[in-house]
Amino acid sequence: MIMEEEDSTRRERPVGGAYVTAVSRSAGHTFSKGCEPVIRLLAGLGVEGDAHLGVTVRHRSRVARDPSQPNLRQAHLIHAELHEELRAAGFSVGPGELGENITTRGVDLLGLPAGALLRLGGEAVVRVTGLRNPCAQIEAFRPGLLARVVGRDEEGRVVRRAGVMGVVVAGGAVRAGDRVEVESPPPYRALERV
């Protein structure tokens, strides 16, 4: 695979197409996740070593409501283009800092349909379950940031821009530079918060 350096970072990326720019995880329920050279996705569970790993919900607010709910938030993905947009608006934000496990480039994550499959690298597959619903933790992380990732459109509908959530359908290692391939099942169903 032909590789080239991305911007001034040391991450390499495939020339053209969609790819992973960073991978992150945190064993604790922290807002931000630390970048890693590689993460391992486990089918039906999520990211190995991450606090949100599990068949049933792991996000504390959801566990408090009903701990038996299925975990539709096993993996969190954000597009690197959002980080750039936020930096241009004066917010210092990098990979993993908004709590995502996988940062991508060249994929319109927010425009994907529910059920879209994201093939990451050679083995791992994540099925997109919905939009991340940003909470007050984002505001505590950087004051003013919540208004940048949640807004309203012309008709007054809520627009969520803080990435997508998914479940792991096939496990495998994922690292910066891995290609991302998208498979969208018909019929198209717009993403909703999850």
UniProtKB/TrEMBL annotation:
Q: Which InterPro entries match?
A: MoCF_Sase_C (IPR005302), MOSC_domain (IPR052716), Pyrv_Knase-like_insert_dom_sf (IPR011037)
Could you tell me what this protein is called?
Answer: MOSC domain-containing protein
Q: What superkingdom heads the lineage?
A: Bacteria
Record lineage: Bacteria, Bacillati, Actinomycetota, Actinomycetes, Streptosporangiales
MOSC domain span? 30-183
> Which GO MF terms are attached to this record?
catalytic activity; molybdenum ion binding; pyridoxal phosphate binding
Source organism of the structure: Streptosporangium sandarakinum
